[in-house]
Amino acid sequence: MRLIVAEKPSLARAIADALPVRATRREGYLEAGDTVVSWCLGHLLEQAPPERYDPKYKQWRLDDLPIIPERWQLVPRSQARSQLAVLRKLIKSADSVVHAGDPDREGQLLVQEVLNHLGWRRETQRLRVQDLNRPAVVKALASLEDNQRYQPLYAAAEARSRADWLYGINLTRAWTLIGRQAGFDGLLSVGRVQTPVLGLVVRRDRDIAAFEPKPFYVLWADLQVAHGSLRAWWQPGENHPLDGSCLDGSCFDEQGRLLDPRPAQALAQRLAGAQGHLAQLDQKRKRQAAPLPYSLSSLQIDAARRHGLSAKRVLDVCQTLYERHQLITYPRSDCRYLPAAHHREAAKTLISACRLDDQLRGWAEQADFGLRSKAWDDAKVGAHHALAPTGRPADMDKLNRDEANLFRLIARNVLAQFYPALGTYETQALFDILDERFKAQGREIIEPGWKPLFTTRDDVPALPPLTQGETATVTDAGCEARETRPPEPFTDASLIKAMMNIARYVEDPAVKRTLRESDGLGTEATRASIIETLLTRGYLIRDKKAIKATRTGHALIDSLPPAATRPERTALWEQRLSAIAESQDAPAPFLEALVSDLRALLGQADAGRLNQALKASTQGPAPEAPPRKSAKGGKRGAGARKSSGSRSRRSTSTSSSSTSRPSTGSSSTSSSSKKSQATSSTGDKPTPPRRTRKRTS
């Protein structure tokens, strides 16, 4: 019997459908002749909790840190035990095994760790499926490879999983324990990803709080030209120094904004009725392709802006559209491109998917399915392709509002690939008047193309027809006072975008380059859960659409070494992990360097510094996290809430473990223990060790 182990049920179904024998559904697998296709449910295994290595680690103590396993162990996730039992039974009867995880680093780990755990040591083949349509899967099944070829990819993923465990477990225990010493009765979790995200918000909040608005001034002139009128804006520069008043540059800030209104006001008075000429005319025809189909993050950004949905809500709704309604393809994708083979079936797929909705049906009927945009590119399709309709008709009456809104966005962006490019005629005109320069810009839409499918802001109005050198007469002029504005607070949309484009927030060129080449902070599957975790733990708070750091969040960032609060570590890890995946490095040196780094960070755990940070946070404008109710209805502190861990396949949480009152010394007395989750750096939600009290008679 040949056993094919897929990463998820949807992939297993696609593989079974591509087999020459019709498959029969069994409990936990599909049977097609002498081939059986089963599946994982995301990660079936997780890193063992500390107390699995030594019972003494149930007690949280500074003297035990760092906790470094000599021999790593994995344990089954509680919700995955039944499927793991199915695979254990099947693998005992298998003559050959095919690894069918996603074709990326994490997909290689997810299936292979299960095969290793179940004792499969014989030769394994590798099936790499990037597209779930039947012809593509049939082709992949005919091109099986030796799984041994992908061992470096597995080694890199395994090293990442272990490194995240080491980092999250040890720093979280350390900072929670010094928090106890400083009087904070709650969890202070630290992670490689979540903590830099919190640091981003803290620094943005402080930039806003410290911002001092400054006035500046703009000068405009309404001009009459041969074929109409327009408004032009004064431009600073060496050749037009406001009648010589600002030759030394003292009138301008570093961005060229005018700080002194008097020269502009004087010029405005002189401009009335003045004549000048069009000194420079730049006119271009431009073509703009439609926005690409969505990745999950790009959809989260648009849905937050258009419909006010949180990143987690978008992910949850997409999972429902994918799993329950089967209306869209796999949603946790970081790709915005589609396989070339999908282009041939696109007309049939989209017409079917859109036929029950008036708006989408109208767009589909006007689409030119003979067009081929740059979205169809196999070279840019990774483990998954962009989000797209499956072809199943979407009955909006059976969807809730959020489901309907997101389906329309996903379908629209794919439909837009079959509309012409947006054609515009853009004009930039520079006028010389009284030895000063004034600029006017305009844009005329020549071919609307895909634009009617999108609700966008009003365009820059078109300018009247212009001729180089023509005369311009000033009909009115004025000087307007404006004020610099602080940075905007983060929202779901802007925070997801910042995590995607984290390279913007670092200065080192090499680190910038690495972060641009990697996924940024977090992944498509984990970004939403990271934000929600920080909110749940009371480190962030939502204020209408804004996301702000709480006092606890500020204090945590201030108490940590700066290196733990910034994104550079992710880039440095990614460099080493890429080298491991490409057989240019081994996992052991990477983990050894991490342990050395970890010891240095632990050496900076200082209760006094944390105490000062906690006190300072109460003096600033940061909000207090609202108390949450426990399962029994009582209130619990922001850091002491109980929450289930993330279920994303990229999660590396450790399993529930018994913890008693944390101790900060080398000895302790036994006390009753409570269940909690140990923390990791990828967004899982642990319960902190809580103080137990002896009953007195």
Describe the protein's architecture and organization.
By secondary structure, this protein is α+β, with helices and mostly antiparallel strands. Helices cover 36% and strands 19% of the residues. It contains 20 helices and 23 strands. The strands form 6 sheets. The chain has a 7-stranded mixed sheet with strand order 2-3-4-1-8-9-10. A hairpin with a 5-residue loop joins strand 20 (628-629) and strand 21 (635-636). The longest helix is centred in the N-terminal third of the chain and has 31 residues, at 151-181. The radius of gyration is 30 Å and the shape is globular. The termini are far apart. 44% of the residues are buried.
In brief:
With 697 residues, this protein is an alpha+beta fold. It contains 20 helices and 23 strands.
Q: Average pLDDT across residues?
A: 86
Helix content: 25-40%
**Multimeric organization:** single chain
Number of strands: 23
Class derived from helix and strand content: alpha+beta
Compile the SSE list and pairings.
Blueprint: E1 2-6, H1 9-18, E2 24-26, E3 29-32, E4 35-39, E5 45-47, H2 50-53, E6 59-61, E7 74-76, H3 81-93, E8 96-100, H4 105-117, E9 124-126, H5 134-141, E10 145-146, H6 151-181, H7 194-210, E11 215-225, E12 228-235, H8 261-271, E13 275-288, H9 296-307, H10 311-323, H11 341-354, H12 358-366, H13 401-415, E14 422-433, E15 436-447, E16 471-483, E17 490-491, H14 492-500, H15 509-517, H16 527-536, E18 540-543, E19 546-549, H17 551-559, H18 568-581, H19 587-602, H20 607-619, E20 628-629, E21 635-636, E22 656-663, E23 674-677
Parallel strand pairs: 1-4, 1-8, 6-22, 8-9
Antiparallel strand pairs: 2-3, 3-4, 5-7, 9-10, 11-12, 11-16, 12-15, 13-14, 13-16, 14-15, 17-19, 18-19, 20-21, 22-23
Helix pairs in contact: 1-5, 4-6, 6-18, 6-19, 6-20, 9-10, 9-14, 10-13, 10-16, 11-12, 15-18, 17-20
